[in-house]
Amino acid sequence: MRRRMRGLVVTAVALTSALSLASCARDTGTQNNGAGNTGNKTGCTLAPKPPAASTTASSSAQDEQVDGSKLKVGLAYDIGGRGDASFNDAAAAGLDMAISKLGVSKDNTKELTASPQESEDAKQTRLRQLASEGYSPIITVGFAYSDALKAVAPQFPDTKFAIVDATVDGAPNVTPLIFAEEQGSFLAGVAAAYKSKSCHIGFVGGVETPLIKKFEAGYIQGAKAAAPDIKIESKYLTPAGDNSGFQDPPKGNVVAKGEIDAGADVLYHASGASGKGVFEAAKTANALAIGVDSDQYNQATVADFKDVIMTSMIKRVDVAVYDYVKAVAKGDVSTLPKVFDLKSDGVGYSTSGGKVDDIKDVLDGYKGQIVDGKITVKDTPGN
Length: 383
Description:
The protein is an alpha/beta fold. The chain folds into two domains: 57-179 and 316-346, Rossmann fold (3-Layer(aba) Sandwich); 181-315 and 353-371, Response regulator (Rossmann fold, 3-Layer(aba) Sandwich). It is built from ten helices and eleven strands. The strands form two sheets. It has a six-stranded mixed beta sheet with strand order 7-6-8-9-10-11, with helices on both faces. Strands 2-1-3-4-5 form a five-stranded parallel beta sheet, sandwiched between helices. Residues 1-25 form the signal peptide. It holds the Pfam family Bmp.
């Protein structure tokens, strides 16, 4: 009898262990499809990993010695200005680099910032002020300056202007600084797919403009390339014409929370200073977030949320601003890239914090496919 009881106990323990192991297997939701789904613990089936990258991007910023000490550099920021932890800060970093590397005197620089909902006249007045005071080059940060430049640049034909994210037709003294945001965002989408535990991610756009749709398009394409069955939430804070979406952290928090409540556990924002609210929502919900423009893991203004920032889509506005100032100092802007893309190191992704170190080979593999022309990234959402 005692022997029989002992046998029953052994059988019960074995059954319990088997059930426990089966439960653990269900909880992880990990699928091994032979595609090397490194770091992925989702219910998604990941696509096969791309081959190792064979092409390396070339940096546009060289250490050539150039004297910029005679320049007076003006910088006209978009709303948020220096300190937005994003787009404008990247431009500010480029100016700071020009001061430290080219000998531009800080006393010969001037920075002015746009206000939310300001008129076109206000933008024109800002540019005329800088030009009248002898600043050249003058760098305008953001497509919102397009119309103002179209009016002002012809009035100051000897002044050199540049505009980030736009072109100004018929103004030979205006240099466009254009980026392939969709390419960098593609890599952000891949990273999100690999790191999501729910196979459900989100995108938060600041203002619904063609420019921000490039971020959305690349992100969606990258995520679906890595995990075809992934679910994606996508929302904007404000419609086109209402630029407050770039400077409204509380609204960013509300929209991000809504996407998290819907099931998303990785959020990518392209919303300027509003991204602070997205990070806050991610931290509260124990989700992950992807920054934009600058390496936001290292940005002091969002330092309280750095533990949830897994990577950032780097848009090297700093490189573009610095390279443009250097080109003006040399007297030749024709050598600048037509588009700052992955190949020119104009966009990319950050590794600060180490959260994507385990999938770096995957990200670099997709990067190589884009650089080699084997993947074409769309700049508008949808098919």
